[in-house]
Specification:
single chain, about 1250 residues, alpha+beta, Rossmann fold, Methylamine Dehydrogenase, Chain H, six-stranded mixed sheet, five-stranded mixed sheet, 40 helices, 42 strands
Amino acid sequence: MQRHPSPDYGYYKEFEDSEGEASESLCSSPNTFSKSMENAILSSDNEINIVSCFNNIDKSFLLSNTPNELCPNLATKDFNIQETQKEIVIRYQNQTEITECIITSIPHPNSFPKIASDYSMMSPNIIGWIDIQSLPPADFNTFVNSYLKKGYQKIKEHIRFLQIFNPNIEKMNNLIGIRRDIPVGRIMFHFIGSYNAVEGKNLYLANGKTKEYQSYPVKKLFSNLNIPSGFIFDCDNGGSLIYNLEKQSNKLKSAVSINFSNPENVFSKKPSYDDWFAFSLTSEREKLPLCQNLPRDFLTCCIISPVDISIICHILQYYKISFPSNSLIALIKSRETDTLYAALNAICEGVLTDFLSNDMIYTMLRTDPIIAHCTKFFALAQFLLIPYNIHPISRPVLPLMTSHHLWMQWQATIDIWVSNSTQSGFSDSIFLNSIESFKYYWNGQISNSLLSIINNIPYLESEKYDYIFPLLANYCMKSAKNRQQFVSVVLFINLFQKFLCFNPQDKHFESICYLILCTLKTSPKLVFSIGKEYDLTTLCKLVFYPSLNWKSHAYICSIISMIIPATRMIRLVLCSYDYLNDFLKLLFEKRSSFLLSNIILLQRILKYSFDELPQIDPLNFATVSIVSIFHSNYEIRAASLSVLISFLRQNSSKNFNYMIILFSIFLISDMSYMVRHLLLNLICKYITIDASIYTTSSTKNIQITSTHAFSNLISFWMNEEIDLKDIQFDKYLLHVQNIMKKANLTNDFKNIIYFVIDYFCRDPHPFIKNTAQQMKTFLSSRGKMYSTETQINITTGSSSSSLNSSSNPKSPINSLIQSSDSSWRDSVLDESDSDNDTSSHTTFYESEALFNSITNQLIKIESYYLKKFSHIKGLNKSLHRLSFTVGKPLSKVNHESLELKRSRSFDTKEKINSYVKTVTLQNEIDIQKLNFNSRINKMIFVNDSLDLIITTNDQYIYLIENNYMKNNKTANVIWKQHIFDGVSDLRVQNDNYYSKDILISTNDGCCSLWNSFQKSPNVIFRADSNYLCELVPQFATFSGKSYIVSSRGNSGLSKWDINTQRLAGEWMHTLNHDSYTNFNIISALHIHPLHENIIISGFNDGCLVAIDLRQKENIFEIKLSEKIISVTDDGNNVFAATANGESFIWDLQKVDLNRCGLKRGKIMSFDSNTENFIFTSNEGIPFLTEKTNTSDILKIKEVSDVMVSVLHPNKKYAACGSRNGEVNVISIGP
């Protein structure tokens, strides 16, 4: 396999000679790793000096705008943190032991029967491919011993071999000593029997000299060898032996179960008497026929020389009269048969993979090379003996596999060998044909047998088959089912050996890296196949290879990360001083994907090898991780938090732990649920290692503070003005430096911890919420932290400069807080519970969610794009239909004109006298009815189609694919998901026809961003820092393709970056009118159709404001008469509607606002498009009018009890959703 030259790691030395701040800071220290961390941030005079720790850090990588190449967003599986956080590797105890010793038992040659014939003296008696009649008896033992030993050593080079020649009772009893020498490994007993060697429960040991037989109980043999063990019975009636071994095994299992029910043995290891294998040539009462050309050791020949026995049987079956009987063995020996072995090996494995389950494939073919070899050629023995009506049997029971089509391929190959000895490369035809079949059936169902043969091809001696790796990699990328199928048949050890000697500069290197990662991720237990004999130093040094692309580098880091928990040898390499010193320099990589992979690898090293680290300063790695928290890539922020979790230690300085928490706390506003999950884990770990301060006596006068903006919140904690939209590490570093010098730091720090836990108790992600509630209960059990002296202080300043201003007692925010279940004191446990055991909470911070998510992305990155354009079509196969009815199209109606007076301000008491013509249309409307089971809350059309997004009162969201315009008259639910609260706002943005980004805002102040490909939100976050307010609606809308703008209550505007998943800015509403106290809660939000930085906000008190986020002053502010319920646009104008039925237009080319409709009583909803208005009265009746002539209002009587009505943005269709769950899609024009 050493085809490529060994990789040149000369570049690795330059790291040792390079000069730089990073390498100088890693000088040896007299302290150990954990001890040096204790005083890591203390200067010589014991004063905190944090700034000096970061002066030498190169922070230029934070300025990199390199996008994250791991393109797929977090998927549905990643959202389920409860599952993804679990450890992915299994324990070694579950693995099968490897065969360490082979014991062969063969009788004296005189014990073998001869053919009863007048010509018996001329008939051969074949054992070990030699006629024992022509071999002197004295040489028989030496010959057979050499033959069997060489055969087994080809399977496994280093194995103990013991032969019992002419066995007797004494020799069999001495086998118990072998088990003493090999207490753990598997012992394989290979029995070659003579005539009548087996009868019932006993082996009959023949003495060739005296021709006497001695019986030996098979159960005693089982007791001598014990478990783990294996048996090969190459004799007649062998099935009866396996039957009796099974009985003995069951008897011992029953005895063990009774014994281990004794409490005294509860800590002892329970032996597994199921850990044994057996292969027999014959079933019960079957005998091998006495054929002069069939060897007496038939099963042994199948195991040791399978090609030879195949050729013999094929000739005897099809060419018996063409070859002299006494020349068959000579024929085989005179011609090359080695080239046939690879083909036969692949065929046998292919046959087995089609008949066995994945668990059986792993047990029989992947754990032990001896067992795997015996299993493969046991299948061959089944096929060769079927003409003789002999049925080999095994334990575990293997099915009869003689009908598989690959045996015909094998027979054809032997035919070619027999008929044409000069043809070269004929055995390769199996592999070439398999490759062509694999390519042909690429998009169909590939059988296990075909995939198994393809898996065998790259390990041939020929170099021309390396292109198989890209083929297999592309196949695995297509789907999880393909990956599972590949892993079930992969030869992992062969693949890993090939990987270790592969040149990183080879064009196929990325593919083999992908296959290794895919295999370990799909079946983590295969990591235990990597034994001590493999040199993993080369693998570890691949991280430094300069010419790797980002994918190969990420694959390498992930492979190493998966091997770390199970292999101590690789941990020793990674924890060496030189390796860590060089690895530190990689952490300043400016490319996001490289930096992410490196940080993930660092986290795995720290998690599993923290106590094995050499004498280096830990602050070097901690500071890099702290700086990386400020990175624009949310996965890098999450990875950095996971590293910092490892640095929080019981024996660390409190100041060191405080520093880590304070640097991370601003991530409370992060959009990424993975970042918040790990931030909460960081807080939980800190609490568990410093729980002594959370007692009744030390938790008085706790202040839980809620504010109008996240920047206000962080500023309040840091006691300095901080703007999160422009947060920079160097500035934030000074803030942390100053706050850590405060005298009452501990008390303030506890207040922050309490607030964060309470804040996360209302997080929109269910797992984060549940974890925080458990930690809240744990803190309550430590003492009455939520006592009657606890103060909830709400800061409502309109800007950062008024951080300590008192809240307005008349504000609806305060009234909501006072009326809601917002106090911590409600969850106080009885004081008697304060001594509860805390051990159940010590695992709060342990999580594999991020690592599993990253590796999932690496594996699925190509399949993400393969699926992108076929998702909808595939999904429709399992959709349910909705009923509908169709009427006549809507006819045109004449409208009377109405002149509107333009003005910049409006008298709310102004009377407008005009004639309104109400037209009721019956039996003239084309309606499509879609029936749901719950009240319709929100609806929106998807551009360029009649597809609808609908939310219902039972907290479900639907994406309806409507085929009405295609005359298909069907509507399919192609996407239905559960949401977590009542919906207050709904928006949609189309990337293309197939992908739809759906933005949902809920009444608890949260937003979630969904993609119609997935069953969980890509992003879910709290958009308002006032988490205690649970009844104020949240509004949010897309601002271009990369941002979200949100607002809630009187908290101002927030802008969120979808790509970086963090807060991009906060602005307070600066209203000039006098009623900014009780009713200035936002009720509508809209983005200027031409300028994404201009936001139009409507309020409960009728105020309408246009704000340019690039300026400090409002574009305009107008006070209307009633609550503004909707703000929409048609591309050229912006429209606003009030609850009393008035509508207004803002011409985008001008500054003034004008009335564009008539007061039509109280309304619940309003919408517009390029030609029409539609609104719904409080009585549940929808009305329709044209913009050019609003004197005629069409009353759609056919639908009733409507809650919301919407217009298609550029087509003549409307949709009405009713209280009873009915949606009507209406054609409003030809």
